[in-house]
Amino acid sequence: MRFVIVTGVSGAGKTAALKMLEDANYFCVDNLPIPLLEKFASLMPEIHGEDVQNVALGIDARSGRSLDELEAVLDRMKKAGYEFEILFLDAEDSVLVKRYKETRRSHPLAMGGRVDDGIRLEREKMQFLKKRADYIIDTSHLLTRELKQEIERIFVANQDFCNMMVSVLSFGFKYGIPADADLVFDVRFLPNPYYVDELRPMTGMDDGVFNYVMNCDTARKFADKLEDMINFLIPNYVKEGKTNLVIAIGCTGGKHRSVTLARELYSRLSGNERYGFRLEHRDIDKDRLLKKHER
């Protein structure tokens, strides 16, 4: 039986993760009072059976003052021989603030004040849990389906987990460099499909544009060197504790060359199952939308 404690900062996706585990036939309990945690763990052998194979327990800032007792409780459970895993959901402060504004909910520790003050206080209170976590998933740039894939990979398929999500992002320089980019590469030196009449309305998602760019020897050499460098960097970033890496590839409009190279890099990297990978094209439709608006 797997006993998973699901926790993390408010707004990072703990409720969604619990629902995903429930869908994977985990018996889930949310917001159990901390003083009852040891008693709950002692009852697990009795509830284990055909209907209950695995258990997930949600704990967060709603536990209030009893959260301060949790570290001692976990230590006693470890000493008593109870086996458990801790999944910690995290996200960037700016993303958390945006999520709270969109849902118009108040932060449990904001006490009627600013959301970012609540986030700061919660991080202080939850820091010991993050340090003890077996798995940390940063949901800042994850879609719901991508979080579900990570949850299933770890807790259903029992695959090895490495706490690194790599986002390959195409963009257009004329719309600005992505604020969250860790690495930025400029591919405006490659042949531009924009100047080929039949390719101009297409994007790097179309074979015509993709083949036009990648048939260039310079593009292939660049992709080889970029792949080699990223494969070198990722494990070194992991050693330093980095959990999220955004690789931004830009051309003028973010429609042709950057999309092509982002596709190519993602294709080369995503076969490595040790890490999570996602592909995003930020500006691929911007030109079309602007032209439509102008009309």
Short recap of the structure:
InterPro entries: P-loop_NTPase (IPR027417), RapZ-like (IPR005337), RapZ-like_N (IPR053930), RapZ_C (IPR053931). The chain contains ten helices and nine strands.
Question: What is the topology?
Answer:
Layout: E1 3-8, H1 14-23, E2 26-30, H2 37-47, E3 54-58, H3 70-79, E4 85-90, H4 93-103, H5 115-132, E5 135-138, H6 144-155, E6 165-172, E7 183-186, H7 207-214, H8 217-239, E8 244-251, H9 257-269, E9 276-281, H10 286-294
Parallel strand pairs: 1-3, 1-4, 2-3, 4-5, 6-8, 6-9, 7-8
Helix pairs in contact: 1-6, 7-9, 8-9
Description:
This protein folds into two domains: 3-155, P-loop containing nucleotide triphosphate hydrolases (Rossmann fold, 3-Layer(aba) Sandwich); 165-294, no CATH class. Helix content is 42%, strand content 18%. The chain is built from ten helices and nine strands. The strands form two sheets. A five-stranded parallel beta sheet has the order 2-3-1-4-5, sandwiched between helices. The protein has a four-stranded parallel beta sheet with strand order 7-8-6-9, with helices on one face. The protein has 295 residues and is α/β, with parallel strands linked by helices. Helix 1 (14-23) packs across helix 6.
